[in-house]
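User: tokens in, sequence out, please.
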């Protein structure tokens, strides 16, 4: 009879501490669970959450929360499907607000984790060239990760989480400020990627998407301040399409992080 009962332990290990010296590691979270038994003295269960997986999960959660809020608010006749309203207006109604807050809160935590993990692995991005034909089979795309990118994801996490927790009906000024912080930080991250130019279709599409995001933000700011005639449904269309652009870009960028330089 074993006098010592089996012990189960879960350890959260810093990805940078486990990264090989000659490889790029972008794991956001690594959880190891060990449960020794009489027959197997050291059994391990490992769960890994990578930065790319976290970013794509954020994209799915944001789209899911926004679309579900639209469906619930329209179905309950709290808002109209057309003229189109802002995402925050659909998400401020009950019960849609519960789902939207859960989705944005989880997304905010993941974005903060992404910023932390990228900061821990910043030396790897400085040491390895993530460009060339081997990256997503495009001619010359490059992924740049620096302090500005890390700060952008940090601000995006704070902005998204805060805008989700504080609805436009509760405090519109704070909600709008936090939402704008999220949008501008994402636009800045995308702009920071264009350190080189390629006429390939992929980089051109992403460049047009980034330009559209900036135009959407500028037009929204001009209409909100009544510098130009304010058209509510135009602002709403710009917000919905800008959100889709950000999700599409982050989906590509997360995949590019997984591509390692073949030697």
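Assistant: Sequence out:
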């Amino acid at each position: 009879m074993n006098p010592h009962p089996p012990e189960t332990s879960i350890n959260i290990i810093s990805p940078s501490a486990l990264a090989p010296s000659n490889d790029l590691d972008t794991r956001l979270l690594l959880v190891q669970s060990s449960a020794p038994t009489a027959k197997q003295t050291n059994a391990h269960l490992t769960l890994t959450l990578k930065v790319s997986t976290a970013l794509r999960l954020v994209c799915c959660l944001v789209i899911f929360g926004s679309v579900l809020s639209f469906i619930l608010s329209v179905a309950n006749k709290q808002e109209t499907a057309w003229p189109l309203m802002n995402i925050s207006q659909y998400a401020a109604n009950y019960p849609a607000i519960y789902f939207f807050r859960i989705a944005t809160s989880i997304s905010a935590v993941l974005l903060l984790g992404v910023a932390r993990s990228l900061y821990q692995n910043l030396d790897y991005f400085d040491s390895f060239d993530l460009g060339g034909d081997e990256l997503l089979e495009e001619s010359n795309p490059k992924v740049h990760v620096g302090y500005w990118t890390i700060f952008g994801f940090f601000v995006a996490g704070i902005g998204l989480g805060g805008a989700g927790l504080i609805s436009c009906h509760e405090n519109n000024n704070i909600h709008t400020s936090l939402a704008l912080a999220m949008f501008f930080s994402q636009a800045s991250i995308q702009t920071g990627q264009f350190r080189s130019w390629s006429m390939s279709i992929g980089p051109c599409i992403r460049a047009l998407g980034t330009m559209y995001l900036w135009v959407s933000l500028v037009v929204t700011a001009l209409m909100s301040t009544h510098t130009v005639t304010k058209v509510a449904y135009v602002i709403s269309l710009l917000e919905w399409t800008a959100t889709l652009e950000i999700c599409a870009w982050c989906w590509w960028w997360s995949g590019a992080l997984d591509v390692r330089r073949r030697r």
